[in-house]
Amino acid sequence: MNDTSRAYDVVVVGAGPAGENVADRTSAAGLTSVIVENELLGGECSFWACEPSKALLRPVVARADARRVPGLRRAVQGPLDVPAVFAHRDKMAAYWKDDDQVDWLESVSVDLVRGHGRLDGPRQVVVETGSGDTIRLTARHAVCVATGTVTAFPDLPGLDTVRPWTNRDATAARHVPDRLAVVGGGVVAVEMATAFQALGSQVTMLVRGTKGILNRMEPFAGEMVTEALREAGAELRFGTSVTGVVRENGAGSPVRITLDDGQSLVADEILFATGRAPHTQDIGLETVGLNPGSWLEVDDSFRVTDVPDGWLYAVGDVNHRALMTHQGKYQARIAGPLIAARAKDEPLDDGRWGAHAPTADSAAVPQVVFCEPEVTSVGLTTQEAERAGRRVDVVDYDIGRLAGAVQYADGYSGKARVLIDTDRNTIVGVTFVGPGTQELLYSATVAITSEMPVDRLWHAVPAFPTISEVWLRILETYRDRAAR
């Protein structure tokens, strides 16, 4: 082995949270591991998504909560301190330096090669370093791709000349545009619209579909967030597509946006949050018989299904199972020990909820939208349950009726929905909308993954007066309905 040719048990391409966890878990199991990264260790989540976006949103939500508390309203009527918000955002993004991540990687005995990694046939990864060197890495047991996703742009002529914002530009912004157009209605679009409207932008959301925002969640979630955004001053247009964009006076000038109905509007910046595409365009997929730019379809052991001999794995967003950081890390915590077990010819624990089974990717995926009001969900929605042929009772409750909610904020507005599988008497889906509901999500996740019978949940007593008392009220509603 020399500087230009090295062999490891496992080669991981991509050092976001998923890739880091695969490398950590395989190393902890006694395998030699190396990770390849062309950008910052920690990936999108640490520097351009989860961490900086929530730093932007936290003061927005905290101010909204405070304004509902008697005795605090007058103290929080002024505008947000934008430089202070940005300074906190910078701190949470570690000032876009990955020194701590590098130190951690060394502490868990994982090697690092910085550069652009590409597959080069079975078990081979070639890395072009920033200094122009080429390093060939050979994997004895597995190569794991964890390269994540990039912004999916629509096919619009001249879009690149406009230099539109992506999530990276929004979360790392150095100024607040007077007018911000947000194209899309998903999580990124909603969160950034919430943040920048509160920071001082006049936000216009352009949503192609007619079903509203957050349309993969329960309909009432999008409806409640739409109402809150409009009350905050944002404009939301549904059933609207962008057909053209141009900066008429060159770089730095406003963007003129043409819509499919012939109308136009002008914004200082335009953010495209129209979905994600797999970051696989230039990682050598063609050398192992796959199409560049494609999602990597995997089985339940995270092996890429269309590659023979089972040496290629994919975890995190790139496999399209669940595009969330915590799910990518969950997959990695399963894939790492699984790769090690196969390397050592040990038996797999791959039954339902087994140590080597990603059951939660289909049964209990938790999600929080950090907007105002907060939206949290785990498991199935009503529509998903219907499509799957599951017989469920839908139990709704007005969270604002709780004593804990009234204590939390005057005029609290929120809603809970729980889906109960009538055949098994277990909870299979939960959605909460309202201030402070993100802290209810783990209890919902535990209820689903433990498959706890509803009868036993009666004995999980919520403290009074807290918002968690919603669990008791949901069960009472379900009981009273059954008694009629």
UniProtKB/TrEMBL annotation:
<keyword id="KW-0520">NAD</keyword>
<dbReference type="Pfam" id="PF07992">
    <property type="entry name" value="Pyr_redox_2"/>
</dbReference>
<dbReference type="InterPro" id="IPR050151">
    <property type="entry name" value="Class-I_Pyr_Nuc-Dis_Oxidored"/>
</dbReference>
<protein>
    <submittedName>
        <fullName>NAD(P)/FAD-dependent oxidoreductase</fullName>
    </submittedName>
</protein>
<dbReference type="InterPro" id="IPR036188">
    <property type="entry name" value="FAD/NAD-bd_sf"/>
</dbReference>
<dbReference type="Pfam" id="PF02852">
    <property type="entry name" value="Pyr_redox_dim"/>
</dbReference>
<keyword id="KW-0285">Flavoprotein</keyword>
<feature type="domain" description="Pyridine nucleotide-disulphide oxidoreductase dimerisation">
    <location>
        <begin position="365"/>
        <end position="471"/>
    </location>
</feature>
<dbReference type="InterPro" id="IPR001100">
    <property type="entry name" value="Pyr_nuc-diS_OxRdtase"/>
</dbReference>
<dbReference type="InterPro" id="IPR004099">
    <property type="entry name" value="Pyr_nucl-diS_OxRdtase_dimer"/>
</dbReference>
<feature type="domain" description="FAD/NAD(P)-binding">
    <location>
        <begin position="8"/>
        <end position="327"/>
    </location>
</feature>
<dbReference type="InterPro" id="IPR023753">
    <property type="entry name" value="FAD/NAD-binding_dom"/>
</dbReference>
<dbReference type="InterPro" id="IPR016156">
    <property type="entry name" value="FAD/NAD-linked_Rdtase_dimer_sf"/>
</dbReference>
<comment type="similarity">
    <text>Belongs to the class-I pyridine nucleotide-disulfide oxidoreductase family.</text>
</comment>
<keyword id="KW-0274">FAD</keyword>
